[in-house]
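Problem 12. The chain below contains 184 residues. Write out its predicted structure in token notation.
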Amino acid sequence: MRHFAVMFIAFLLFVASFKINQLLDGYLLYKDGISLLFVPAGVKLVCVLLGGVPALIGLYFAGVCVSAMLWSNIPTVSSLMLALIAACFYGLAVFWVSHLLKVRKDLSNLQYWHIVVLSAITSLAHGWGLAVAYYSQDLSDFQNLVPETLAIALGDFLGCFAVVVVFSLAVRTVRKLQAGNRSN
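Solution.
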């Protein structure tokens, strides 16, 4: 039951953050499917770090919904493939980099520099995988592969940074409130 809850929460957080991110499209949209500040990437990072594979499954289903919202004119199998590529590239990068950095599963040794490295590598991996997927689905041209990879990576990295800052501030605030309640 816990795994289902993690999947559902990751799904809801990603779709909600995507809808909120769309409010910024007028300012930060590079092209359909590519934002120069992609807050859902940060949500994805936090979800995968905290929820593991169950969160990744929820993020896959959220990716299917988001793909269908963005490109109603592409076949369903294309939406399924785009979401699978996005989830796999991102998830594998997070798990691989976490392993290389020796980040414990309980995140007890996670440091800010780990998050920067995780964000940078996952953003590049996700950017490349998604740009190639866009090209394979005729959503992009070959000559745009590198610029779109970099645009996706930049948006993901900045989105990770924004979410991690907000998440860190929230955690610090909760800890201060808890410390204040203990002293009273």
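Discussion. The radius of gyration is 17 Å. Students who got a different answer should revisit the alignment rule from Section 12.3.
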